[in-house]
Amino acid sequence: MNDFSLDSRLESDSFPVTDLPLCQVRLMNDARFIWLVLIPRRPGIREAFELSTEDQAQLWREATALGQAMKAAVQGDKLNLATLGNVVAQLHLHVVVRKTDDAAWPAPVWGHGKARPYDMDSLAAMRDMILAQIQSLSLTAN
């Protein structure tokens, strides 16, 4: 994992939260949605099939456990998990908790309206809530 570097667009569009055993967890800077991005800390990976079998399983464990916890914490209606990579080629998995009254429902969150950036207080509160969910799942960094 020493050669891992984060794509500049992911870096500029999101805030770091923590590292899980495989993935860096980042919060997208759009307060309209509960929207996390998991980026496997493996250099040069563009597609999920390029990960080892063990890393593929770990990515899925991290995404589904965190998604389930976040959905419960905010009483979401649906969990969206997606890898697209059409704009940012580096493998990253979107974990988006949806509510039927959110700004984009039922359409995808991508490209819907203008992002509403977090203010510092809301960002701190959201990061604290995400970290609490991660701690409750015993998902800890290496």
From TrEMBL:
GO terms for molecular function: catalytic activity. It comes from the Bacteria. Transmembrane segments: none annotated. Residues 36-105 form the HIT domain. InterPro entries: HIT-like, HIT-like_sf, HIT_Hint. Pfam families: HIT. This is HIT domain-containing protein. It comes from Litchfieldella anticariensis (strain DSM 16096 / CECT 5854 / CIP 108499 / LMG 22089 / FP35). Gene3D superfamilies: HIT-like.
